[in-house]
Amino acid sequence: MKEERSLSLLQLMVNEGLVPSLEEEENRKTVIEKLKQVHGSESDIDALCVGPYFATMVDDFFIVLYNMLKSRPEVSEIYCVKDVKVPLMRFVFDGILIDLPFVQLKVLVVPENLDILNPVFLRDIDETGWKSLSRVLANTQICRLVPDLKSMLRCVKFWAKRRGVYGNLNGFLGGIHLAILAAFVCQCDPFVGLSALISHFFKKFAFWPWPRPVELQDETLHPTLNPTETRLYMPIRLPFSSYEYCHSNITKSTFYKIRTEFLRGHNLTKDLLKFDFDWHNVLEPFPYTKKYAWFLKIFLSASKQDELGDWVGWIKSRFCCLLFKLEEVQGLCDPNPAEYIDVNIADPHVIF
């Protein structure tokens, strides 16, 4: 029966487009060939732009490279997110969403066959560059510790997006957070099927004693609790360090929402053998209009599509400040991470 549940979940993932087709896989391979330092996932790609010591983020990355990418026919929906702890460019390349942060290395020339994990290149990197680099280091360690993670992570990310708890800029869980949480469950239960892993995922974190940190099992590292990081609502340790934790924008409101969704997932998956069990119930979209009576709508408009992208990036970089202010006034709020285009509005280049 549990095997049937796993097969039904895999079929649902296929139906929802979570399992790439052969054409999509070839498309991703093309992108990866063009972006040599990519470490990707099933729905988007986390890339890293590496520059020599004389290349700056302000001028060379956010102006020169931005204009180069903007002029490419394969690139669309490009905008910059600057005033955050991990500044980046976000754009669509041949239909695939790319997150591109920047790191400056203390070298005169960046070699084509650069091993970014070589300690020689990691010296004297500033704090912003180190946070940008942490995604690559974390992804590499996760793949080493838990190599067979792809199917579970696809499902977990799909659940998080459907239930409105995905997106670090919006105060929720980012891709690296979910990857570590999923890998942690895989380490705890290495010999069970996909459906059981998803069930254990919800059970594990529905009752996790936060702010106790989540740490992957790694014999090369010694567990070391950094007391300053226990102030985070959901501390998740980066898998390449004994004392560094994932950057998080989680607030009081989003922490409550995430825990509520973990508990809901647990209640729906704790008995996979029930005759009426259906994965569609677990993964149904969050019913915002049924759940809430009051909404705050952020309406963005620009005269040009390119200007709208920059405007969206500027708003997203300050979104958590708005959450904190709303919590001071309202107590709790539930930001919807999705963006919408109102087809009934005649004005062009509008998003909310």
UniProtKB/TrEMBL annotation:
Source taxonomy: Eukaryota, Viridiplantae, Streptophyta, Embryophyta, Tracheophyta
Keyword vocabulary terms for this entry: ATP-binding, Magnesium, Metal-binding, mRNA processing, Nucleotide-binding, Nucleus, Transferase
EC number(s) given by UniProt: 2.7.7.19
GO BP term (any one): mRNA processing
Domain spans labelled Poly(A) polymerase nucleotidyltransferase: 37-146
Primary location: nucleus
Origin superkingdom: Eukaryota
Enzyme class label: transferase
GO cellular component: nucleus
Names of required cofactors: Mg(2+); Mn(2+)
Gene Ontology molecular function: ATP binding; metal ion binding; poly(A) RNA polymerase activity; RNA binding
Residue ranges of every copy of the Poly(A) polymerase central domain listed in the record: 150-284
Any Pfam family hit: PAP_NTPase
Protein's name in the database: polynucleotide adenylyltransferase
